[in-house]
Write a structure and sequence with these properties.
Blueprint: H1 4-20, E1 24-30, H2 50-57, E2 60-62, E3 65-66, H3 72-81, H4 85-88, H5 103-109, E4 113-117, E5 133-135, H6 146-163, E6 167-172, H7 212-242, E7 248-254, H8 269-272, E8 276-279, E9 288-290, E10 295-296, H9 300-308, H10 322-325, E11 336-342, E12 348-355, E13 359-363, H11 379-389, H12 393-404, E14 408-412, H13 430-446, H14 452-456, H15 461-472
Parallel strand pairs: 1-6, 1-7, 2-9, 3-10, 4-5, 4-6
Antiparallel strand pairs: 2-8, 7-8, 11-12, 12-13, 13-14
Helix pairs in contact: 6-7, 7-11, 11-12
Length: 484
């Protein structure tokens, strides 16, 4: 008769060895972070993100990383499904279709435990996508308490070790999402950042005017960014203490750009440009940099199944970038495609964008000269711009562009990454514009994008309106200019 003790012992040993042989994945996301806030991406003042800068020295840094939709829920649905928004059904704050495969169920079926901290609803686009371990904002110090993140992370990692299972762990900071950190009036449950900043410390992004009101708001954003860095440091501490760091692929990104005008909820360069830092000991060369290949979050799902050697489901739109992590080249990464469909509140403001190494083309089918664009990320920055615009025609022109757009935009991103000078009518760029338009059409055809019909008829406003109505319903209803 076999001794039950030895049976249990060898079962646990086999399970532990099985887990150790399979890499873990930890995806850490910031909420509304400007990529260039990080020191390793040229951020100022120096020392704003010490933990992330240290992590970057141990990682591969991608300089051409983007999110495919610069709004939290649609972006996270793309991460979860590996499909563009119109291919999953999650074209805004709405669920993905239940028949669409997701990363959590896929890895769970292969023996992984799946855990999540923060942004649970926005990161769970399907009812059938069930996390094994889950704590949301209210149980994380309003998503803004590094010590609580540390404690929750330690618990999850311990549970995985006890179960002898590898893990997929999505850790989502609620920083630096609004409301920004006012040290004189902390959000209940939130911690103080390890350092506080003032308006004089701010380096105003080039797509915003340098106004006192803008500086004042960005100083509070920097406080939130510092607390994000504190949280990241504590989660990395928990990983190190668990003993799992050497067997864990860790990625750091933002879900979209900063929540101010001309960034989040749009398709300009700083709307979608994301930091991407990837550490995988013994597999990735520390301190390496990739500034040649475009990668985006639609590529995460196929990369994760490639790394874990799990069979990929059919229908993924992205491609694994594991070869890049190994220091190899990879063809077909000369362009990145980004989009907006509908935003918070349900208003449809469809945008389609393609970017190459030096140029960016945007198609805004909703722009008809009357539709009044707005979002919930404007804050005191837009208040300051509106006030300054009364006496400054250049700022007034920026405000007007933000509100009404134009159907087509084209930018020389090498010389104008802040997208200040629309070159769509400049004949010197006609060939480049045509090239990017052709790339966009090919992408729309390949992914069955409903906006293709609008694009090919973009000079016929009546047809464009019909396409938008067929796709989004009564899209014009929420585009009226508010009464003063």
């Amino acid at each position: 008769m076999r001794c039950p003790f030895f049976a249990i012992f060898f079962t646990l040993l086999a399970s532990t060895l099985f887990a150790a042989d399979r890499p873990n994945i930890l995806l850490f996301t910031a909420d509304d972070l400007h990529a260039e806030s990080l020191g390793v991406y040229g951020g100022k003042p120096e020392g704003l993100t010490p933990n992330l800068d240290k992590f970057a020295a141990e990682s591969m840094k991608f300089n051409r990383a983007h999110v495919n939709a610069a709004i939290c829920a649609p972006c996270r649905a793309i991460i979860a499904t590996g499909r563009y928004s119109h291919r999953s059904g999650a074209m805004g704050f709405m669920p993905a279709r239940e028949d669409v495969p997701d990363i959590v169920n896929t890895l769970q079926a292969a023996g992984y435990r799946a855990g999540i901290l923060g942004k649970v609803g926005h990161s769970t686009p399907k009812k059938s996508m069930k996390w094994d371990y889950s704590f949301d904002q209210k149980d994380l110090g309003n998503g803004r308490n590094p010590q609580i993140y540390y404690e929750r992370a330690k618990t999850f990692l311990k549970e995985c070790q006890d179960a002898g299972k590898p893990f997929y762990f999505m850790v989502n900071s609620h920083d630096p999402h609004r409301p920004y950190c006012n040290p004189d009036k902390l959000t209940p449950g939130a911690a103080m950042p390890s350092k506080v900043y003032r308006a004089k410390d701010v380096d105003v992004p080039g797509f915003l005017p340098d106004l006192p009101g803008v500086r004042a708001e960005l100083a509070t954003y920097m406080n939130s960014t510092r607390r994000l860095d504190d949280t990241f440091g504590k989660v990395m501490q928990a990983l190190e203490e668990s003993g799992e760091a050497d067997n864990t692929l860790v990625l750091f990104i933002t879900d979209n750009g900063i929540a101010v005008p001309f960034a989040k909820c749009n398709t300009w360069f700083h709307s979608t440009h994301s930091p991407l830092l990837v550490r995988w000991p013994k597999h990735i060369k520390p301190g390496s940099i990739d500034d040649q290949h475009f990668v985006s979050v639609v590529d995460f799902f196929p990369t994760f199944v490639d790394v874990t050697k799990v069979a990929a489901p059919e229908g993924l739109d992205g491609r694994s970038f594991l070869p890049l992590l190994k220091g190899e080249g990879q063809e077909g990464r000369e362009y990145v495609f980004t989009q907006i469909d509908s935003k918070a509140g349900g208003a449809a403001v469809p945008m389609r964008c393609v970017q190459s190494d030096n140029y960016g083309y945007i198609y805004n089918p909703f722009s008809d000269g009357e539709y009044y664009y707005r979002n919930n990320n404007e804050g005191m920055t837009m208040v300051a711009m509106n006030q300054a615009a009364k006496n400054d025609p250049a700022i007034q022109a920026r405000v007007d562009l933000f509100r009404y757009r134009v159907p087509e935009e084209f930018y020389d991103l090498k010389n104008d990454p802040n997208c200040l000078n629309n070159l769509i009518d400049n004949p010197d760029y006609a060939d480049k514009i045509k090239e990017l338009q052709q790339q966009l059409v090919a992408q729309m055809k390949a992914t069955e994008d409903p906006m293709l019909a609008a694009f090919v008829s973009r000079d016929d406003r009546a047809t464009v309106d019909k396409v938008l109505t067929a796709t989004y319903g009564n899209w014009k209803a929420k585009g009226k200019k508010p009464k003063k």
